[in-house]
Amino acid sequence: MITATNLTKKYNGTTVLNIEHLDIPTGQSMGLVGNNGAGKTTFFSMLLDLIQPTTGNIFNHEITVSQNEEWKEFTSSFIDESFLIGYLTPEEYFYFIGDLRKQNKADVDALLLTFEDFFHDEILGKRKYLRDLSKGNQKKVGIVAALIGSPKVIILDEPFANLDPTTQIRLKKIIKDLTAQKETTILISSHDLIHVTEVCERIVLLDKGDLVKDLMTSTATLDELETYFSKDLTLKEEA
Amino acid sequence: MFKRLFSLEWKSFFRSASLGKSIGLKILMGFLALYFIAAFLMFGIGLYPIIIEYFPGEEPLYLVNRWFLVWMVLELVYRFLLQNLPIMDIKPLMLLPIKKRKMVNFVLLKSLYSFFNFLPLLIIIPFGIFNIYKQTFSTGAIIAWMIAMIGLTLSVNYANFIIKKNFTDNIKALIPVVLSIAVIAILDYFKIFESSVWFGKGLNAILEFPLLALTPILIVIVFYKWNQKDLESKFYLDSTLKDEVKDANTNEFLWTRRFGDIAPYLQLDLKMIWRNKRPKTTVYISILFLAYGLIFYGNDAYQEMPAFFVFAGIFITGIFMINFGQFIPSWDAGYYPLIMAQNIPLKKYLTAKAGLITFSVVVLAILSTPYLYFGWKIFLINLICAVYNIGVNIPILLYAGSFNRKKIDLDKSPFMNYQGTGATQWIVGLPLLLMPLLIFWIINKFISFESALTVLFVLGVVGLILRNRAIGFIAQRYKGQKYAMIEGFKQSGE
């Protein structure tokens, strides 16, 4: 269970995020959508205690994230390249994350084996540093590293961006499999409405920091979101 | 169009994240530049009288010409090491409708404004004016000579880019060039074939036939055209403009396993050091600085002031500690959000850093044992300084690290590189180097040499015993500064 209460973030008087209350029950997969500047990454960063909320708190399984670090043991994330260590090879990076999450080499190897398809033979055994991989391949490494050590909460910022179509489809399957057991809470942000409605049971829509829609995904959700995001266009056409 | 390109350049300088933030650094760089300008100008003005004074009977201009080839080779060497063609800056312009030729010309002409081209003028012009004043040669001849000199300097400027372009990817290809220069130098040295003399005679000829000054200008034009052709042909993303990909080094540092739960961090730090240019060079510098003691120990002036030996001891055993420790945690700036969001307790992270530095102090202390040659006192001072470094200076440096807000690009060379340097680096130097010196000096003066050393030793041991608690306290401080650090490390600055 993740709870945000009275959460705001202001930069020089401008409010970039304002969420009065948001509950994410354990085992839910939640998709965060919104245009650039809607506050998606800000929300994730606050959930990871990387930026300080102006007011309010986030509780991750009853732990106040800004006061206690214990949430780190069961929470993993991939936000951007600053979560990768450029001078390591993908294998070394996985083992390092494995060490941090109390997984030995054999555990990590076993997990990596299940992602053979996802890697598409472009990641392992290439004798290349992460900094020399393409953006898409870096993303693959970051996403898989976030899954090491069966975390209870997984946070992925824009996981579909930069991935090739095959990998996007594989990633959707991975996320669906993870949420099937209803034990892992997954938070995803995306600009791709089709992908996100397909893998998430709940969609939260942010607009300039405000929570404007909170929907349980159904067949109508995609239409509703598309209508919302094209409203400016329709207004103009009508005028 | 050229005007617009220059205005871009202007903006990139004044809008860079670093400007204003590190005004102290700018002042320091300014002083360094002033120093070089003053040094070159003094040399330029003094050259004529010096030659008259020390080489009576020689014609100064002929003597300068005689050695000019040697100067040019030296200039080429330091330009090769220090000067770069800023080719990467034009990458974003590639897609815009600007002609290739124009951009290439811009980069090449911009290189003329380099400090390296300005400094020789400070010698050539005053020396030329002296010669005009002396009237040994006609004014026209001297002006022709000055033009030729400037032409040759600029030739070196462009020749350097050609050499860099063609040889930096392939250092081995440089061997024949270096060898042939060496052969020419040896032939010259043993007076078998004195190329420098012949070159000087060529320059002397300019004084007789001023029109010959056109030759160096022709050389500049040839080199310029060559650069132009070269750059235009390589103006593609996949050749010059892309950084090369190196095969990964896969040393695992498995021996660190014995350090238990800080092993993963130690491995990460060791990989960071060995696989990145800046930290790696820091290690080499530390080894070079082992020789620092020779300045003090062999010098009679310091024999009555053992406090200086303490300074040397702190420095020798702690040079890696200082060079590496002052930039903790900026080394990890590129992935600091990962460190903060992953399951990494700050205390362990800091303990691992302290462990690594301790290890370096021990190694440097062992490597400094040959100083036993200068007597057991010096040897003892070094050992006790090592203990003091481990016990007291390491926690001080880690604490100072919590003030660091500046990122470090791991792949840049550390020479003349002040990236990551802020007020912290200057201020922390005081307690680090001066405190032990002061403690030693006072006690040595008023009590005795032995008790002064004992006090330093005890301080070190106490620090070591309290280290765990100190690191706990420092970790709290890092936690408090966390958001500001993450924010600061995101900025890319010089």
TrEMBL record, chain A:
The keyword Nucleotide-binding applies. Keywords: ATP-binding, Nucleotide-binding, Transport. Coiled coil: none annotated. Transmembrane segments: none annotated. Residues 2-233 form the ABC transporter domain. InterPro entries: AAA+_ATPase (IPR003593), ABC_transporter-like_ATP-bd (IPR003439), ABC_transporter-like_CS (IPR017871), ABC_Transporter_VariousFunc (IPR051782), P-loop_NTPase (IPR027417). GO terms for molecular function: ATP binding; ATP hydrolysis activity. The keyword Protease does not apply. It comes from the Bacteria. This is ABC transporter ATP-binding protein. It comes from Gillisia hiemivivida.
